[in-house]
Design brief:
The chain has 200 residues and is α/β, with parallel strands linked by helices. The protein is built from nine helices and six strands.
């Protein structure tokens, strides 16, 4: 597969951005190169809030493909017919799920064989670059912000998960707005001192 250059903020076609770092650049590159997919389909798995739905939306808008979000939650028959419909229309197919297909409990043999033939790509938990980018992006959208020093402090201490990052931003942003300023070092330290009771 050929390599492509990816910008830091990758538009998903809806005014939102997907931050691309080593944690997800393999999956992002694969989606941009769907003509190389075996069997014309890819399964993208990853933890909650990791950008799977943004990638699916981008894929449908930019590449005229068929994307099925949360495919692991579909009934076997419905997913099987959706798979056949995409193939019948000659469209590349992207399935997203939290877990690899071997963990879906698929009972329909024909669907199991089709899923087994598709390429699987998995999103990792966020690396430092992803955490900093997410913190910066979410705080800016919320109307606050943080200095580089504060962001570095947070990245070193925050739980390595997309969901935890969003929880931290919600709490930090609410307190920053109450205080009428950005998320500073004092506020960040206070949050980590009470992180157990705040569930961040």
């Amino acid at each position: 597969m050929r390599q492509i250059a990816l910008p830091l903020d990758w538009s998903a076609g809806s005014g939102t951005e997907l931050i691309v770092t080593p944690a997800n650049e393999g999956a992002a590159g694969l989606i941009e190169n769907h003509s190389y997919w075996p069997q014309g389909g890819v399964i993208l798995s990853g933890p909650p809030r990791s950008g799977k739905s943004l990638m699916a939306a981008h894929f449908e808008v930019s590449h005229s493909g068929t994307a099925i979000d949360d495919a692991d939650q579909w009934e076997d028959e419905a997913l099987f017919h959706a798979w056949n419909a995409a193939k019948g229309a000659g469209k590349p197919l992207l399935l997203t799920a939290r877990t690899p297909p071997g963990e879906w409990g698929t009972a329909l043999p024909d669907l199991r064989s089709r899923l087994a033939a598709m390429q699987l790509t998995q999103l990792a938990e966020p690396d430092d670059a992803m955490l900093e980018g997410l913190l910066r992006l979410h705080l800016a959208r919320a109307g606050t912000g943080a200095t580089d020093e504060t962001l570095s402090y947070i990245v070193k201490r925050i739980d390595r998960s997309y969901a935890a990052t969003e929880r931290f931003v919600r709490e930090a942003n609410a307190r920053a707005l109450e205080q009428g300023g950005p998320v500073g070092m004092k506020l960040a330290r206070n949050l980590f001192e009470h992180q157990d009771e705040l569930d961040i």
